[in-house]
TrEMBL record:
<feature type="transmembrane region" description="Helical">
    <location>
        <begin position="94"/>
        <end position="115"/>
    </location>
</feature>
<keyword id="KW-1133">Transmembrane helix</keyword>
<dbReference type="GO" id="GO:0008237">
    <property type="term" value="F:metallopeptidase activity"/>
</dbReference>
<dbReference type="InterPro" id="IPR026898">
    <property type="entry name" value="PrsW"/>
</dbReference>
<feature type="transmembrane region" description="Helical">
    <location>
        <begin position="6"/>
        <end position="29"/>
    </location>
</feature>
<keyword id="KW-0472">Membrane</keyword>
<feature type="transmembrane region" description="Helical">
    <location>
        <begin position="36"/>
        <end position="57"/>
    </location>
</feature>
<dbReference type="Pfam" id="PF13367">
    <property type="entry name" value="PrsW-protease"/>
</dbReference>
<feature type="transmembrane region" description="Helical">
    <location>
        <begin position="207"/>
        <end position="233"/>
    </location>
</feature>
<feature type="transmembrane region" description="Helical">
    <location>
        <begin position="279"/>
        <end position="302"/>
    </location>
</feature>
<keyword id="KW-0645">Protease</keyword>
<feature type="transmembrane region" description="Helical">
    <location>
        <begin position="135"/>
        <end position="155"/>
    </location>
</feature>
<keyword id="KW-0812">Transmembrane</keyword>
<feature type="transmembrane region" description="Helical">
    <location>
        <begin position="63"/>
        <end position="87"/>
    </location>
</feature>
<feature type="transmembrane region" description="Helical">
    <location>
        <begin position="245"/>
        <end position="264"/>
    </location>
</feature>
<keyword id="KW-0378">Hydrolase</keyword>
<keyword id="KW-0482">Metalloprotease</keyword>
Length: 450
C-alpha cells in the first residue's frame, strides 16, 4: 500500500466517522430536523461510496469498475425484494429501509475495505499470508460494520424495531447492500484478470462465472450471516429494561455470525492452500445450504407469527365492540387476509380490495402498539388513534357490500341480526366465525363488521 493510498484511506475513514458523529448528533439533538438528518445520512453514504469507488477504480480501472457495477446490480432486485416481501405487512418507513441498505452498501463496505486492506498489509509485513485477513479480520469487521446500521435504528428509532422480524428485515437489507457493493469489487477484479490474461471477452466470461456463483448460488450469504445477528437484535428488542440480557443476545448472536463467516471464508482459503478447490463445494451442500434453508424457514415462521400476533394483540377489542370476531379471525393468517381481500374485490372491485388492504395494515399497526404495551415498551397514542381512524375509513368502503347478507351489528357480546320480517334477533358468536361478513356499527360503538 503506497503512502498516498494509506493517507487517503485514513482520510476516508475519518470522514465516515466524522459524518457519522454529525448524523448521530442530529438524531439525538434535533429529531424534528428531518431534512438536515437526511442530508447528513446522504453525505455519510457519499463518503463511504467515494472511498469504495476510488479504491476499485485505482485498483482495476474505470472500465472494469463499470462492468463490475453492472454485474453487481443484476441480483440486487432479488436480494432487496426478498426482504421487502418478508416485511410487507408491517408498516416500515421507506427511509429506514433505504438507510439500512445504504449503510450496508456504502458505509459498511468502506469500513471493511479499509480495515481488511490494512490487515492484509500488516500480515504481509510480518511474513504471513495476507489471505489470512479473509479469515481473521474480515468476519469480525464485516459483521460488526453491517450490524451497526440496524443498531443505529434500534438506538435512535426504536419504535420501528419491535421484534425479530423487524431486525431480520433491517439486517437483511444491510447484508444485501454489502453483498451488492462487494460484488462490484470482485466482478471488477474478475474482468481485469480475464482482460489482462486474454482479452475483454475473457474478462466478461469470468464476470459471468462470478455472477453465477456469487449472484445466484451464494447471493444470500451476507444476509444469512447478518441474519444471525438479527436474531440477537430482535430478542433484545423484546427485553426492554434488561440491558444485560440485551447485550448478551446481541453479542452472542454477532459472534455466531462471525463464526459462520469465518467458516465460509476459511473453506475457500484452506481449499486454495491445500490445492483442494472442491472443499468449499463440499461444505456448501453439507452445512451452509441446510443452514440457509433453516433460516428461510425461520423467516417464514416469523412472518406468520407476525400475523398471529395481530390476532392476539387485538383480542381485547372484540369484547369492546371495536372489532368483530370474524374480523379478528381474518387477520390471523396471510391466507385469510388474502381471502378477505378477494371478498372485498368481489363486491367493491379494486377500491374495495385497496380498502381491505389498508384495513389490514392499519390493524397490524394497531396490534404493534398493543404488543409494545404488553412487553413494557412505550406506545404511541397518536398512532393508535390514526390506525383506528384508518380501519373505520376502510370499513366504510365495503360494509354492507354483500347483498346476500342480512343487516347485522356486533356489540362486543352478540350479533344483532335484522331478519327479512324486520325483527332483530340476538345471536351468539359461533366458535369458528365466518369471515368476512359486513356488519354496520351500533350507535354506541365504532364502525365494525363481522
Amino acid at each position: 500500500m503506497s503512502l498516498s493510498t494509506t493517507t487517503l484511506a485514513i482520510l476516508g475513514a475519518a470522514a465516515i466517522l466524522a459524518l457519522g458523529g454529525i448524523v448521530l448528533a442530529w438524531i439525538g439533538l434535533a429529531r424534528k430536523a428531518r431534512g438536515i438528518l437526511i442530508a447528513g445520512v446522504a453525505l455519510l453514504f457519499v463518503a463511504g461510496a467515494t472511498v469504495l469507488a476510488w479504491a476499485i477504480v485505482e485498483g482495476t480501472g474505470a472500465q472494469a469498475f463499470a462492468v463490475g457495477l453492472a454485474a453487481a446490480i443484476l441480483p440486487a432486485p432479488v436480494l432487496v425484494g426478498t426482504f421487502l416481501w418478508l416485511g410487507r405487512y408491517r408498516r416500515r418507513p421507506w427511509l429506514v429501509l433505504a438507510f439500512c441498505f445504504g449503510w450496508g452498501a456504502c458505509v459498511a463496505t468502506a469500513i471493511a475495505l479499509i480495515v481488511n486492506t490494512t490487515a492484509s498489509v500488516l500480515l504481509e509485513k510480518n511474513d504471513l499470508d495476507p489471505n489470512l485477513a479473509a479469515v481473521v479480520s474480515a468476519p469480525v469487521i464485516e459483521e460488526i460494520a453491517k450490524l451497526l446500521g440496524p443498531l443505529l435504528v434500534y438506538w435512535t428509532a426504536r419504535r420501528h424495531l419491535t421484534g425479530t422480524l423487524d431486525a431480520l428485515v433491517y439486517c437483511g437489507l444491510a447484508g444485501a447492500g454489502f453483498a451488492v457493493a462487494e460484488n462490484v469489487l470482485y466482478a471488477s477484479g474478475a474482468y481485469l484478470n480475464g482482460s489482462e490474461s486474454l482479452d475483454a471477452a475473457a474478462g466478461l466470461a469470468q464476470v459471468t462465472i462470478l455472477v453465477a456463483v456469487r449472484g445466484l448460488a451464494t447471493m444470500f450469504a451476507h444476509p444469512l450471516m447478518t441474519g444471525l445477528s438479527a436474531i440477537g437484535l430482535g430478542k433484545a428488542a423484546r427485553k426492554p429494561g434488561r440491558k444485560g440480557l440485551q447485550t448478551v443476545w446481541i453479542i452472542g448472536m454477532l459472534l455466531c455470525g462471525m463464526s459462520l463467516h469465518a467458516l465460509w471464508n476459511g473453506s475457500s482459503v484452506l481449499g486454495v492452500k491445500l490445492d483442494m478447490p472442491a472443499l468449499w463445494f463440499a461444505l456448501y451442500p453439507a452445512f451452509l445450504a441446510p443452514l440457509f434453508f433453516t433460516m428461510v424457514g425461520a423467516a417464514l415462521w416469523l412472518r406468520a407469527a407476525d400475523a398471529r400476533r395481530s390476532q392476539t394483540a387485538l383480542a381485547p377489542m372484540v369484547a369492546a365492540g371495536q372489532v368483530s370476531p370474524p374480523e379478528l379471525a381474518s387477520l390471523a393468517t396471510f391466507s385469510r387476509r388474502a381471502a378477505a381481500r378477494a371478498w372485498a374485490f368481489r363486491f367493491r372491485g379494486k377500491p374495495g380490495e385497496d380498502a381491505m388492504k389498508d384495513f389490514q395494515r392499519a390493524a397490524s399497526d394497531l396490534a404493534e402498539q398493543y404488543d409494545l404495551a404488553s412487553i413494557g415498551r412505550p406506545w404511541d397514542d397518536r398512532r393508535i388513534e390514526y390506525a383506528v381512524h384508518r380501519m373505520n375509513a376502510a370499513r366504510a368502503v365495503y360494509t354492507g357490500a354483500d347483498p346476500a347478507m342480512p343487516a347485522a351489528l356486533w356489540d362486543g357480546r352478540q350479533y344483532h341480526v335484522t331478519f327479512p320480517d324486520g325483527r332483530v334477533r340476538a345471536l351468539e358468536a359461533p366458535s369458528q366465525p365466518l369471515m368476512p361478513l359486513p356488519v354496520p356499527p351500533p350507535p354506541a360503538y365504532p364502525v365494525s363488521y363481522a
